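Structural prep section.
Before we set up the soaks we want a predicted structure of the protein with nicotinamide-adenine-dinucleotide in place, mainly to decide which crystallisation condition to try first. Input record follows.
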Amino acid sequence: MQELTHWIDGAHVKGTSGRFADVFNPATGEVQARVPLASTAELDAAVASAAKAQPKWGATNPQRRARVLMEFVRLLNRDMDKLAEALSREHGKTIPDAKGDVQRGLEVVEFCIGAPQMLKGDFTDSAGPGIDMYSMRQPLGVAAGITPFNFPAMIPMWKLAPAIACGNAFILKPSERDPSVPLMLAELLKEAGLPDGILQVVNGDKEAVDAILDNPTVAAIGFVGSTPIAEYIYGRGCTNGKRVQCFGGAKNHMIIMPDADMDQAADALVGAGYGAAGERCMAISVAVPVGDGTADKLIEKLVPRIEKLKIAPYTGGNDVDYGPLVTAEAKRRVLGLVESGVEQGAKLVVDGRNFNLQGYEDGFFVGPHLFDHVTPDMEIYRQEIFGPVLCTVRAQTYEEALKLAMDHEYGNGTAIFTRDGDTARDFANRVNVGMIGINVPIPVPLAYHTFGGWKKSGFGDLNQHGPDAFRFYTRTKTVTSRWPSGLKEGGEFHFRAMD
Ligand code: NAD
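Run finished without errors. Recording the tokens verbatim:
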């Protein structure tokens, strides 16, 4: 069995804690590798050597740092197929989806190539008599990122690219469920010219995370994962005086107005609800048709589309719609929530509970589920399911639909499908959610905008990627300067001919 490593000072390093976690092939249920789980001492050593390497990198001009990222982009494109394959093998998502995972990370690296521009400070000439004022954006030193399993390429890149572009050293603690791609990213960055020690990949679980939270050298932490862990990391990290931003779970509502194109809405819902087996923080997990007539029409359009979905391993051809969940535990949890929905009185219109894939009986596949007549008190509505389960909550009016999205504790993304600009505009203005789609089901902002949810989906200030990332990974210093007159008046500057 393959034994994975950490990546320290530009090389693969074996774990020394003696603790490991299994990495599964979710399609077969087999353990395909084991990943070392770092001890506090291993994490502290990685931070110490990152801190040693950082001053030189921080003093390297931003254009040279950007060139490393430029080359990194080239290498990501060169190795796209290899990265996608490794990603699918551990995560279970389809190859096109895995390529999207790499691509959406790569685009943030591209944005970070603009570091020389993004890091320019402000300047005021003659803020007072003979006084100039200017600001500088300086690196924090050592920053850390703790990332989830569901985007093992994209989210590490959303963190490490801006942190490194700003001149920091970075400690990445990826998900222990799919750690291979983050290690491959580190190899590519070395090949691109990143000095050793500037990116350390420390694999691990709670012990490594707690060591990051308590290490006094770590100045900032970016976290993405479930909300209970986000709250924990935010609380402990802030108490320890660090700059912390944490992005948590979601329950994204899509409102379907009676005037929406029902075919478009149904197509959008199937992709956004079941793509990647629902394991996306921007998945639509709640459909809110407005009016019973709209609901009936929508369900009628959804059922045949859902029944046609092809669920198979990533090796099953180009027409696979989604693959297995990441672990057996995730499968148990999702099926348990489906049972609770049935027990609490929701109507299970498409029942995927008995889904079985011949030849892959031990894989973590879950069939698609569609619930109708879900109410806000049910567990399937309150909790993030993170599986191929779409809940329909019927609303009688637009205001009722808006209130549902607003009253839910999560506020990551939401969408409205309508042909009326006034309704769409009102929705975008009033809803208390961070990312809004208008006739777009998964409104993930591009690299040069920023990504972040509200309410229990985001803790701390500033979003991920875009200009916010350059603010998060730097500190502002403002200089007020006056140069008393002297030489200018008294000095002799002319090049005189000898008398
Ligand atoms: P998770 O919270 O289980 O794990 C995230 C990270 O935290 C991992 O690196 C893990 O090792 C670490 N961790 C887990 N338990 C810990 C503990 N007790 N103490 C300290 N660290 C711990 O999340 P996941 O299952 O990997 O990812 C899925 C979740 O991430 C979903 O809730 C999803 O909505 C969310 N997510 C959010 C966004 C966003 O931008 N808002 C993006 C992607 C995923």
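Observations: The chain has a mean pLDDT of 96.
Flagged for discussion at group meeting.
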